[in-house]
Design goal:
Blueprint: E1 3-8, H1 16-32, E2 42-47, E3 57-64, H2 71-89, E4 94-100
Parallel strand pairs: 1-2, 3-4
Antiparallel strand pairs: 1-3
Helix pairs in contact: 1-2
Amino acid sequence: MPVITATFDPAVDVSPADAERFNARVAGLCLDQLSAAPDKVQILMVRAIAPVHGASIYIGVQYRHQDFRSPGVMDGFMQALDHLCVELFGKTPRIRCFPSRNDQLFARN
């Protein structure tokens, strides 16, 4: 963890190069701002099969709650994601972050 899922409306132009840049920069943000372990970062880019209701880019962030991931840290992380989407795709994303406490997380593989 963290798991970043970015869902794109079919009308959003996502070139392979922009997808690669998005993945690399989001991974960097996870390492630098969230202090995530490199082997724990997962980034999923999903294209909706039909026009989405709401924002044309939706980013969901699931992460383990840690005291150092304060509201200020998370705000900076979301701001960086916001700027990245505007820069690469010309769209402002809707971003939602969901912390999980370690005692409430069950995982496998």
